[in-house]
Amino acid sequence: MITGEFDGPTLHHFQHLAVEFGISGRVIAPGVVDDDTLLALYQGAELVCFASLAEGFGLPIAEAAATGTPVIGPDVAPMSDLLGLLGTVRSDVGRGDRQRAQQRVD
Description:
Blueprint (H helix, E strand, L loop, with lengths): L7 H13 L14 H10 L3 E2 L9 H8 L4 E2 L6 H8 L11 H8 L1
Parallel strand pairs: 1-2
């Protein structure tokens, strides 16, 4: 599931990645969701992949981790610092290292 507000090219890129990884039938993009829905999504997820390299404070990482859901995120500050403090998975997501990150979660 991909949540948030994305322009056409960005959403197309995510759809292309889903096809590339063979998961296109399992990925949906509902857009922006309310807080209750977001909490339910975090609680029901097997894994949260936080792929943004530009998030200012990493709030989505903290929200997901607070539900006990494993998180994969970028190895750039401040997200890497937050991921380390929360004891969640830290990886070079966005730098071609997705497979290694997924193996660490499995």
